Amino acid sequence: MEDCGGLDGFYGLLEVLSDTSHPDYNHIREWLDDKRFAPFDRTRLNIQLRNEKLKQRAKNK
User: Fold this and answer.
1) 50 touches 43 (CB < 8 A)
2) SS3 of 2, please?
3) Dist. CA 54–CA 50, nearest whole Å
4) Res 2: pLDDT
5) pTM for the whole thing?
6) In the chain, what is the greatest distance between 2 CA atoms, to the nearest angstrom?
7) Residue-level pLDDT at 11
8) Per-residue pLDDT tens digits for 2-50
9) Structural domain boundaries of the chain?
10) 3-state secondary structure 13-42
11) pLDDT of amino acid 18
12) Whole-number Å distance between alpha carbons of 38 and 50
């Protein structure tokens, strides 16, 4: 995530998100919602990758 201040900012973001009682938790969630952040979804990613591979195979025929 480019907008969180580099690697250190990203780790700080993960720390806040892992603790719902953290004072910055709600603020960070709102910020992510504004950025239309979607939590990692392995199933969705696998479907997207599979579809991309199928497109490439069809293109190479």
Assistant:
1) no
2) helix
3) 6
4) 65
5) 0.53
6) 56
7) 92
8) 677 888 998 999 999 999 999 999 999 998 888 877 776 778 878 888 8
9) 2-60
10) HHHHHCCCCCCCHHHHHHHHHHCCCCCCCH
11) 92
12) 20
